Amino acid sequence: MKLYETTSISTAMDVLEILRSFKIFDYAMFDLTLSLLGMWLLAPWLCKLFLKLGIKIPKISWVFWALPIGIIAHAIVQTMTPMTAQFLDPSGYYVLKIFIAALTIAGFRGVKKVKESK
């Protein structure tokens, strides 16, 4: 029975490695797609939460913020993914830094403070 468990874990890891082998530049397409899809699925709940706090944030803004939030989260927990390491590298990768800044700014389009109704 133990052999079966080890084999299935090994097979799952092989599948994950295959999925992560397709890359755009140094970034795994699987990881990028999963990040954006995950944020798209979480966006309705995040929008409702921030609406209760008096801030209206469009769902698409959360998708724009997926990569910047991911970089911040990885930096906080000190997990250096290729994108996080490149973004935090002070000596280069300016195209990535400009792209992340553009995503952050694009995410703020449509964000509004909601007046509280009494």
Question: How would you characterize the overall build of this protein?
Answer:
Helices cover 68% and strands 7% of the residues. The protein contains six helices and four strands. The protein has 118 residues and is mostly helical. It has one domain (23-113). The mean pLDDT is 89.
Keywords:
118 residues; mainly alpha; two-stranded antiparallel ribbon; globular; 7% strand
Low-confidence stretches: none
Individual helix count = 6
Strand content: 5-15%
Largest sheet: 2 strands, antiparallel
* Sequence of secondary-structure elements: HEEHEHHHHE
Total E-strand runs: 4
Number of domains: 1
Helix/strand/pairing category? mainly alpha
The main sheet orders its strands as 1-2
Proportion in helices? 55-70%
C-alpha termini separation? 63 Å
What global shape is seen? Answer: globular
